[in-house]
Design brief:
CATH class: Alpha Beta
Order of helices and strands: EEHEHEEHEHEEEE
Number of strands: 10
Radius of gyration: 16 Å
Number of helices: 4
Strand content: 25-35%
Shape: globular
CATH superfamily: Dihydrofolate Reductase, subunit A
CATH topology: Dihydrofolate Reductase, subunit A
Number of domains: 1
Strand order of the largest sheet: 1-7-10-9
Structural class: alpha/beta
CATH architecture: 3-Layer(aba) Sandwich
Largest sheet: 4 strands, mixed
Helix content: 10-25%
Length: 178
């Protein structure tokens, strides 16, 4: 997930102009080649609102997820404009354990906050990667707003980039759920 320093993942109007940063951090590293990084992802999972936003952005910027299989979790009948996009309604445990894990090694949940909350609550998340951009938005959608239970994390990696972005990678501790 990409967020502002104050934990916002979207402005009220869903614009992404704040993703561009003019910050400079001399001690930072250059970013990983995005094309090479995206090749490591076997499958994307996203919620309906994220999918609708991605469809809207694709009109100007193209489909960001390429030909990688994409599962959209929704109870609505949304338009499917690409062969690699599939709508899914049902139990998230079954989706992950019966459909995704047997077929894919590196599955990325790309949004949104409600779906992330559900995956975290059901212990279907192995790690959380959060890229924090050097901006405070002050208002908009919070990423962890809907998390209602405590979740222990183990820091795996921290990377500071030349553009001022910091990436945090945490392993998610597994515990018994109710």
């Amino acid at each position: 997930m990409v967020s502002s320093l104050d934990g916002r993942i979207a402005k009220k109007d869903n614009s992404i102009s704040w993703f561009e940063t003019t910050s400079n951090y001399e001690k930072g590293v250059s970013g990983q080649d995005p094309v090479e990084f995206l090749k490591t992802i076997d499958c994307y999972v996203m919620g309906a609102h994220t999918y609708e936003h991605a469809l809207e952005l694709s009109k100007s910027y193209g489909w960001a997820y390429g030909d990688t299989p994409t599962i959209v979790v929704t109870s609505r009948n949304l338009p499917v404009e690409r062969q690699n996009v599939e709508l899914y309604t049902g139990d998230l445990r079954k989706l992950v354990n019966e459909k995704l894990r047997p077929a894919y090694k590196n599955i990325w949940l790309v949004g949104g906050a409600t779906l992330a909350r559900d995956f975290i609550h059901l212990q279907l998340v192995d790690e959380i990667r959060m890229s924090i951009l050097p901006i405070i938005l002050g208002e908009g959608k919070l990423f962890f707003e809907q998390i209602v239970q405590e979740q222990t994390l183990q820091l795996k990696e921290v990377t500071a980039y030349k553009n001022g972005m910091v990436e945090l990678c945490y392993a998610v501790s597994k515990k018994n759920i109710d």
